[in-house]
Each structure stands twice: as C-alpha cells, then as structure tokens.
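Hi everyone, sorry if this is the wrong subforum. Our group has a chain we'd like a structural model of before ordering constructs, and none of us has done structure prediction before. Sequence below.
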Amino acid sequence: MKTASKKAKGRNLQYWVCNQVANLFNITFDQQDDQCPIHSREMGQSGSDVYIRNKELYDMFPYDIECKNTENISVYSYIKQAISNTKSGRNWLVIHKKNRSAPIVILDANHFFEILKERGGKTYEKI
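Answer:
Right subforum, don't worry. Here is the predicted structure as tokens:
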C-alpha cells in the first residue's frame, strides 16, 4: 500500500473519531473550520490525533486519543505512543480499526472500572 493511501486511511479514522466526539456534545465537526472546537491533527505532527480546542469541551472530554488504522495490531506500541502524547491529568485512549471491521477502543483496565463505578455501578449481595 502506498504511503498516501495509508495516510488517507488514518485521516479517515481520525475524522470518524472527531465526528463521534462532536456528536456526543451536539456540535458539528468541520475540519476546514478553524473555529471548530474539535480538530483532527495533521499526519506526521506530534501530539494526540484528536485535538480539542475549546476549554470547556476539553474539560468535559478527559481523553487524549491515538488513532490507528492498520491491518496488524501492535497494542503495546500504540499504548506507549498514546501515553507519551497524554497530558497530565488526562487519560489515554487508543482507537484501532482494520479494513472491513468496526473500530475498537483500548484503554487502561483500571480506568475502565473507575468509569463503571462513577456511573453508579450497583453493589450486589453475596449470591
């Protein structure tokens, strides 16, 4: 696969993620609009792949996202890259997609269980 095609695949996933985050907050994602509160980082630039420009939205969405659109998965190298791009006080998140498959989310297991607790997970008596 040509480099341009690989970059296009990655860009498409980043746009998809930007749209998903924008939909969560009822805003419109427009990569061409410099005032858009969410933006896909250009290929080859350092930092998280999804850049949130709006302070309020940034505070409400506590993730720094790394996007990978590849056929082979190298989970721990993706996590290492995501962690290196995550700012203090935020959580890393990897979104991976391969051809003809739905995107998946990779996040720290401890953080996952914290989310469930915060959502009001029920406490069960001994069965």
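For your construct planning: The chain has a mean pLDDT of 90. The chain has one domain: 3-118.
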